[in-house]
Amino acid sequence: MSEKIKVLLSEEEVDARIKQIAAQISRDYAGREIHLICVLKGGVFFTCELAKRITVPVSLDFMSVSSYGDDTKSSGVVKIVKDLDQPLIGKDVLIVEDIIDSGRTLSYLIEILKGRNPNSIRLCTLLDKPERRVKDVKVDYCCFNIPDEFVVGYGLDYAQKYRNLPFIGVVELENQD
Ligand SMILES: O=P(O)(O)OC[C@H]1O[C@H](OP(=O)(O)OP(=O)(O)O)[C@H](O)[C@@H]1O
Ligand SMILES: Nc1nc2[nH]cnc2c(=O)[nH]1
């Protein structure tokens, strides 16, 4: 079996939408500072592009959770692989994710982070697959709703590959013979 990647959202479409969302966030947080939490690894490309375009002051921290491993299906078990470096007390937290699928990862993460007493907590995602939701999650900012297909690129991997693609693609498995 080999893989072919079909473009779902082009680099231009993704970049243009991130600019729009960053402008909206900058308006909504006018006069405040944002503490961005990048959810690794998938959220890293989106976080960088978004952060560069937000015009209010931004601080940045990173967290790594894993529920998929190298599989295309969520295990349902969310593990904290790397915790935040800084406390959240009194901060306006904006969690930045690459994708919300079943909602398990984010519902778990939001509950944990709420317990650290931030002033506010919101969620921004590059992609959302609403059809796949198992756990309710309030999504405050979403760049694209997408159909129920396994996607790669812009931080998203298939067995750790394709994170560096500058567009969002769908993995198509094909027989070599
Ligand atoms: O809504 P869910 O069904 O919980 O899926 C979403 C999660 O899956 C992906 O993470 P993954 O575990 O693949 O880790 P990675 O970002 O390091 O690739 C993605 O980055 C989200 O965190
Ligand atoms: N790479 C990747 N990771 C996911 N995690 C949840 N859904 C997806 C998906 O469509 N692609």
For the sheet with most strands, the description reads: 6 strands, mixed
Rg: 16 Å
Number of DSSP-assigned strands = 9
CATH architecture term: 3-Layer(aba) Sandwich
Annotation field: number of helices: 3
Q: Termini distance?
A: 9 Å
The neighbouring-strand order within the major sheet is 4-3-2-5-6-7
Taken in chain order, the helices and strands follow as: EHEHEEEHEEEE
Hetero groups in this structure are: 1-O-pyrophosphono-5-O-phosphono-alpha-D-ribofuranose, guanine
Subcellular location: Cytoplasm
GO molecular function, one term: guanine phosphoribosyltransferase activity
Domain Phosphoribosyltransferase: 13-158
Pathway: Purine metabolism; GMP biosynthesis via salvage pathway; GMP from guanine: step 1/1; Purine metabolism; IMP biosynthesis via salvage pathway; IMP from hypoxanthine: step 1/1
